[in-house]
Amino acid sequence: SSNDILLYSYLSAEPGANDPIESAVRFAAENDLEILKSRPNKHEVPGYKVTGFVPFNPNTKMSTATVVVNETNEVFRVAKGAPQVIIKLVGGNDDAVHAVNTLAGRGLRALGVARTIPGDLERYELVGMITLLDPPRPDSAETIRRCNGYGVEVKMITGDQLIIAKEVAHRLGMSRVILDAGHLVDPDKSEEEITKHCERADGFAQVIPEHKYRVVELLQKRGLLVGMTGDGVNDAPALKKANVGIAVHGCTDAARSAADIVLLAPGLSTIVDGITTSRAIFQRMR
Predict the structure, then answer these.
(1) Rounded to whole angstroms, what are the CA distances from 123 to 6, 58, 94, 120, 208?
(2) Tell me: the pLDDT tens digits for 23-67?
(3) What are the structural domains of the chain?
């Protein structure tokens, strides 16, 4: 039931994490589940005890929790993460794949939730999918349009699935030439070919942090000047490598120290102000 999905996703959500997805999951569960509404201690789930937790990791793309049922002392694990990862974890599920693709076509992101079957801590079964709407910021389309007007090409780099990335790119007025990040590290292609792909693409989907660095590196080898935005610890190498590293609003200290520019307000429109100001300075110097 939807209550099961909320309960298991709540158990596998990192408590106190300042992550928009984890916050959304916790908020939904606390608002809808009766057992969470009337609990005396906000840090516990009545009837369950979380004994182990592995937070979300960009390489595994999931978080897992080990949970004990107080009444029976039964132990089970729950996992929550990228749909393709969870579907693989449960050994495949065609209905789930179809559901994820249908949702993605509407621009909705899905997360899979799974738990282990009783008596076996290694075999998982699918509980279901959580759907999240992660719309682009209201000023993003205008920012991209203005950047293009100034001769600055914009590429989108996202950990989301390809189909969602194409839908979002379309909404932002970009072309839908979005490649899977696998193209960046394809052993069968020459460096020259990969660089061409990188130059022509409007973006990359299903990336892990190393891919961001790779994109900067390939474009710089082409002699292009590259600006890169980021907010997390794992973006720091790419921010450092780029000609202009831009740490966005609400970023971690690691990103801030690696960047050249730190944005203090939400959104990306300030980047365009940076371009116009620097061009004005350049003209005066000339």
Answers:
(1) 21, 22, 18, 6, 26
(2) 888 888 888 888 888 777 777 788 888 888 888 887 788 889 998
(3) 2-132 (3.40.1110.10), 139-285 (3.40.50.1000)
